[in-house]
Amino acid sequence: MIAIIDYDAGNIKSVEKACISLGHETAVTGDAKTILSADRVILPGVGAFGDAMGKLERSGLADVIKEVVKKGTPFLGICLGLQLIFESSEESEGVKGLGLLQGKIVRIPDSEGLKIPHIGWNDITINPSSRLFRGIPDKSFVYFVHSYYLKAKNESEVAATTEYSAHIHAAVESGNIFATQFHPEKSGDIGLKILENFASV
């Protein structure tokens, strides 16, 4: 069973729909017991870093997520869900992230001819050893919606990158932790393949 964490941060329905379309039993839930008993856990999200961390802390879900990761359950962060697993974000100075991986979230720099937020399809350069991107051609296009991006501390954890006014760490994986800045659930067949890869790790 795949648990999709519901913490009132949007972007839940499309993730649920994608998982169900792949034939997986799926639960959208904020219940700690259900999340901890799941075979896979997804943390989606759109919105502001500080607001989302506040919701996770107040609901106790921040501790639940840390427990999920500690027990080795495969865990996937999507969009804001990727950002929250790192240490901090320029969007919300002074707010600590979950700190599951080392790195910081910074604003995409202004660049002539490029709009921020970055909304649309971009190709990604894939780390060939990535489990999340197994069977997916390099330079595949995926769908992004973001104004802030990840600078991971450990390059070895970067599973895919893209270029948009900066060199963006577009996906990471480390042990049982996986995350994408882009939206696999909105990225067509490529995105569904990524979700299927996650469901089979």
Notable characteristics:
eight-stranded mixed β-sheet; three-stranded mixed β-sheet; single chain; 30% strand; alpha/beta; 6 helices; Rossmann fold
Architecture blueprint of SSEs:
Elements: E1 2-5, H1 13-21, E2 26-29, H2 32-37, E3 40-43, H3 49-59, H4 61-70, E4 75-78, H5 80-84, E5 88-89, E6 103-107, E7 118-123, E8 125-126, E9 141-146, E10 148-152, E11 158-163, E12 167-174, E13 177-180, H6 188-199
Parallel strand pairs: 1-2, 1-3, 3-4, 4-13, 5-6
Antiparallel strand pairs: 6-10, 7-9, 8-11, 11-12, 12-13
General shape: globular
The end-to-end span amounts to: 13 Å
Rg (CA only): 15 Å
Structural class: alpha/beta
Strand content: 25-35%
What is the name of the CATH architecture? Answer: 3-Layer(aba) Sandwich
Tell me about the biggest sheet? 8 strands, mixed
CATH class: Alpha Beta
User: How many domain units?
Assistant: 1
Portion of residues in helices? 25-40%
Treating each run of at least 4 consecutive H or I residues as one helix, how many helices?
A: 6
**Secondary-structure element order, N to C:** EHEHEHHEHEEEEEEEEEH
Q: What's the arrangement of strands in the largest beta sheet?
A: 2-1-3-4-13-12-11-8
Number of strands: 13
Low-confidence stretches: none
Q: What's the overall average pLDDT, rounded? A: 96
